[in-house]
Amino acid sequence: MQPEAVLVEPPVLDAAGYQAMTGASDAQLADLARYQTLLAEWNEVMNLVGPLTIATYWTRHALDSAQLLAFAPDALTWADLGAGAGLPGVVLAVLLKGRAGARVHLVESMTKRCRFLEVVAKDLDLPVQIHNARAEDLSLKVDVVTARACAPMTKLLGFAEPYLRRGATGLFLKGQDVATELSEAQKAWNFESDLHPSQSDPRGRIVQVKRFSRVR
């Protein structure tokens, strides 16, 4: 009998721990700290993230988002579908700021959330473009399309189809039910995917999607 796997909880990082783990610059750390402040302030009047996750921001939100860059280190253009509070898109934009040609498209259908994203983008002077639109109604040419807590994989791939068809790599942050979601998605879509462990949650996975087409 095989012993049961033991889930090792990730460290609960503060700003210094996040910087030590990721190598973020002082300027990037300052921007991320300012984003945390804005997120906490707006979360008082708008449902952006779970209130308890503000306390674990550096692990749950900053690290969770930043880890995507390791899978596409040369990618300059990203689309974050269902951007909501700006995760992972705002964190990615902070880390990409200053790189020539960098642009993160924040795609969000709820107008009030777009207003929050506009405030953050202006405050932090981020290389972003905010689209108050449904993800599947746009057809942006980007290097990577991403999403977190947006929709189950079957529906998410429908949202991402226009971007994937134009050559984007898919990098999607998913939780412990990812295997079930992928099995269901394969009934509607032909695709290959790799699963990578999450640095921020031992139950989480990053789904890297490639060779994508619709089941005929």
Judged by helices, strands and strand pairing, the structural class is: alpha/beta
Q: What is the correct CATH architecture of the domain at 67-214?
A: 3-Layer(aba) Sandwich
Any idea what the CATH superfamily of the domain at 67-214 is called? Vaccinia Virus protein VP39
Mean pLDDT: 94
Distance between the termini: 43 Å
Tell me about the biggest sheet?
Answer: 7 strands, mixed
What helical percentage do the residues reach? 25-40%
Q: What series of H and E elements makes up the topology?
A: HHHEHEHEEHEHEE
Q: Any idea of the CATH topology of the domain at 67-214?
A: Rossmann fold
Shape: globular
> Would you report the number of β strands?
7
Number of helices: 7
Radius of gyration: 17 Å
- Note poorly predicted spans: 1-6
Tell me the β content. Answer: 15-25%
CATH class of the domain at 67-214: Alpha Beta
| Order of strands across the main sheet | 3-2-1-4-5-7-6
